[in-house]
Write a structure and sequence with these properties.
The protein is α/β, with parallel strands linked by helices. The protein folds into two domains: 274 residues, Aldehyde Dehydrogenase, Chain A, domain 1 (3-Layer(aba) Sandwich); 193 residues, Aldehyde Dehydrogenase, Chain A, domain 2, CATH 3.40.309.10. Helices cover 38% and strands 21% of the residues. The chain has 17 helices and 22 strands. A seven-stranded mixed β-sheet has the order 14-15-16-13-12-18-19, sandwiched between helices. α3 runs antiparallel to α6 and α6 packs parallel to α7.
Length: 488
């Protein structure tokens, strides 16, 4: 970064590019301007993709796995060495409490580099001897090679964590990347360029072009013929547009998209565990988590108690600025997103929902009145076919519905175009396995939420995504598996 403006990072250097266009990075806490950000258009994307393509043929492409792994460990150490800078930047962009980002966003963002460095060190391939008509035989063996230039389109809700979740395995596998961060949250992606240089990552391996989607950096990047694969986290509608662009040239895609995730709470649950887990899954990061819960189904005998206790938990949340160490609930990412979420709050009332708590904007005082604040909100009383129950809101809200039996709740949980995540709360071991196996989602938690082992497959089903990442599953996307047949 240079001065107050966020520049692109191309071929190891920060540059304003040639477009001359800038946009403002807005603080969601109070609506103030953090800084200007240079917008990338076709020339900037061309330069970044060319640098990435050249780096594949340069020293990066000639390194051994051990050499790449050592550099990625230095990258992780570099992020941790500048922990406070990354923390400050992330919280400026997102408005989230530092108490949250300090324990999730920054440490997990750094650890992604080491986790995938270890995966690639131990990645297996295949060998098959085969008989031939002349009796001498042949040997088939597979090798993994980098896929090439990877376009990384990363979201604003967990900017560093979800960007490095893609960049970490891409680089570990020997690819180069061009990252287009969300226009809402450019700071940590830009700052990472300095860490890359300090760690000895060759120029052109890690590139960043800032901008928007249509008619801007996002569209030019996903349409670029020299981009070999595209990985994206965000809205399903944007994923559809990216898939159309990727179809030209038959580029591979990996996408984690929207969700309308259910939680299923059985009467035989541990109520304390269930309340704690559902509280986090609904309200952490102000509800701006792809894996978060917006539909809660509670078995009828404990319905009233559960609603009362979740209401008490929501009303006990401490709303505050990032520097408030007691705060555990910040603003939404932007005024635009606030308008969207408040639109659903209004719609719920019009549809006749019972507003258990929230449903409006908290009074944050004059100094913060320009911020993107909303109240944590709980509803009951709506049918499963209402918009509140079917459309992703991506805010700190949920609807709680009663259910009477296991088969009923499985059907209702699966009655959605999405299939990203689900949590099940029961102390009955047989029931937990039986129900989990019938849930149509990429991730299902039992008596937990957001408990992530980075070796396990991660991704959504139905309209929640394509492909799996995590552990060896990332290798399937970030490498080409090639077969070599040697006649003996």
């Amino acid at each position: 970064m240079s001065g107050k403006a966020v520049m692109h990072f191309i071929n190891g250097e920060y540059t304003p590019g040639t477009s001359g266009k800038v946009f403002q990075n807005i603080n969601p806490v109070d609506g103030s301007v953090i800084c200007d950000v240079h917008e990338g258009l076709k020339p900037e994307v061309d330069a970044a993709v060319t640098a990435a393509k050249d780096a594949l043929r340069g020293p990066w492409g000639k390194m051994t796995i051990e050499e790449r792994v050592a550099i990625l460990h230095k990258v992780a150490d570099g992020v941790n060495a500048r922990f406070d800078e990354f923390l400050e930047a992330e919280c400026k962009d997102t408005g989230k409490p530092k108490s949250l980002a300090r324990h999730i966003d920054i440490p997990r963002g750094a650890s992604n580099f080491k986790a995938f460095a270890e995966v690639i060190k131990n990645a297996p391939t295949e060998t098959f001897p085969m008989a031939t008509p002349d009796g001498t035989g042949a040997l088939n063996y597979s090798i993994r090679t980098p896929k090439g230039v990877i376009a990384v389109i990363s979201p604003w809700n967990l900017p560093l964590l979800l960007m490095t979740w893609k960049v970490g395995p891409a680089l570990a596998c020997g690819n180069t990347v061009v990252v287009k961060p969300s226009e809402e949250t450019p700071l940590t992606t830009s700052l990472l360029g300095e860490v890359m240089n300090d760690a000895g990552v060759p120029a052109g391996v890690y590139n960043v072009v800032n901008g928007f989607g249509p008619d801007s950096a996002g569209a030019y990047l996903t349409e670029h013929p020299d981009v070999d694969a595209i990985t994206f986290t965000g809205e399903t509608s944007t994923g559809t547009a990216i898939m159309k662009a990727a179809a030209v040239g038959m580029r591979d895609v990996s996408m984690e998209l929207g969700g309308k995730n259910p939680a299923i709470v059985f009467a035989d649950c541990d109520m304390d565990k269930a309340i704690e887990g559902v509280m986090r899954s609904v309200f952490v990061n102000c509800g701006q988590v792809c894996l978060g819960t917006e539909r809660v189904y509670v078995e009828r005998p404990i319905f009233d108690e559960f609603v009362a206790r979740l209401k008490a938990g929501a009303e006990d949340l401490k709303v505050g600025e990032p520097d408030d160490e007691d705060a555990n609930f910040g603003p939404l990412i932007s005024k635009e997103h606030q308008e969207k979420v408040l639109g659903y709050y209004d719609l719920a009332r019009k549809l006749g929902a019972n507003v258990v708590t929230g449903g409006g904007v908290p009074d944050m005082g004059d100094a913060l009145s320009g911020g993107a604040w909303v109240e944590p909100t709980i509803w009951t009383g709506l049918d499963d076919d209402s918009a509140i129950m079917r459309e992703e809101i991506f805010g700190p809200c949920c609807h709680i519905s009663p259910f009477d039996d296991e088969d009923e709740v499985i059907l209702r949980a699966n009655d959605t175009v999405y299939g990203l995540a689900c949590s099940i709360w029961t102390e009955n071991l047989s029931k937990s396995h039986r129900v989990a196996g019938q849930i149509e989602s990429g991730l299902t938690w039992v008596n937990s939420w957001f408990l992530r082992d980075l070796r396990t497959p991660f991704g959504g089903s139905k309209q929640s995504g394509i492909g799996r990442e995590g552990g060896v599953h990332s290798l399937e996307f970030y490498t080409e598996l090639r077969n070599i047949c040697v006649k003996l």
